[in-house]
Specification:
Helix Hairpins; SH3 type barrels; Alpha-Beta Plaits; 3 domains; five-stranded antiparallel sheet; 8 helices; 8 strands; 52% helix
Length: 280
């Protein structure tokens, strides 16, 4: 009899507590929170399924959109949940408005970088692994985010570049193609035979194993002007992008050796200083 009475009392207390929760709005509060949790889990799974097997530059934008969607779901759910338990949101939002203005002024740079990041991602001008140059900075792209990108410089240091800077400054994607041209600007002595110089350069290009020429990618030997002490030339030949630095070094070394063997002089400026004679 005592056990039966205790059970009845427990059921009566649970029912009373349930009615209090419902009357106080706490049942709706819990319902909104649980619903938000379920919806955000579904949203994350949908976005993860979309990004799976899609390796492209838009992943940062998709991840941002997923976070934005789940945040909006939680905000809406919490607003409704707080209303259900009688929380005055007007006074809370009024107090938050003053802080929001201050935060808004402080976040102008972040917003500018965010918008620039969307433009940068939509253009797809470079990808992770590319070697790019921005003003005086250059390195390999390690990560692309909506606010900034990270470059691994040749000395292995990591540098963060805001997206706003990338939009405002010219960005050179050095490894955008599989081939790249090795260019040199040099000058030869005024007494040189330009036709002979051209033949020597073309022979060097033909003998270098890392260089190649074809109909679409011919080598160039151009006369660019009369310098103060030399006949100026611009020469170039093509190589694989991944072999650029080693091929360029070999190309320069071979040019110097061929010029020396052919008695072609690369002059340097010479200045005569004339001092006025002392008068007695």
């Amino acid at each position: 009899m005592n056990a039966q009475t205790a059970t009845i009392d427990w059921m009566r207390d649970a029912q009373s507590l349930w009615h209090q929760l419902l009357e106080g709005g706490w049942g709706a509060f819990i319902g909104y929170v649980v619903a938000a949790f379920i919806i955000t889990r579904i949203v994350k799974q949908l976005f993860a399924r979309y990004m799976r097997n899609r390796r492209h530059l838009l992943h940062p934008a998709v991840r941002f959109l997923a976070k934005l969607t789940t945040s909006l779901v939680w905000v809406l759910a919490l607003v409704q949940a707080l209303r259900a338990v009688g929380v005055d949101l007007v006074s809370i939002l009024g107090a938050a408005g003053v802080a929001g203005i201050a935060i808004g002024f402080a976040s102008q740079t972040a917003l500018s970088n965010l918008i620039s990041g969307f433009f940068l991602i939509s253009e797809s001008s470079f990808k992770i692994g590319d070697y790019v140059r921005v003003d005086s900075l250059e390195g390999t792209v390690e990560s692309i985010n909506l606010l900034s990108i990270y470059l691994r410089q040749p000395d292995h240091s990591l540098i963060r570049i805001p997206c706003e800077m990338l939009i405002k400054s010219p960005v050179v994607n050095i490894t955008s193609d599989e081939i790249r041209r090795c260019d040199f600007d040099l000058g030869v002595d005024y007494s040189s035979d330009l036709a002979h110089v051209r033949r020597v350069i073309e022979q060097v290009i033909a003998e270098q194993p890392g260089l190649f020429t074809d109909d679409k990618h011919p080598s160039i030997v151009l006369f660019t002007g009369f310098g103060d002490s030399s006949l100026n030339l611009h020469i170039g030949a093509w190589c694989r992008t991944q072999d650029y630095h080693s091929v360029r070094y070999s190309f320069a070394t071979a040019l110097l050796e061929a010029f020396s063997a052919a008695s072609i002089s690369i002059p340097f400026p010479i200045r005569d200083l004339r001092m006025p004679s002392k008068t007695q």
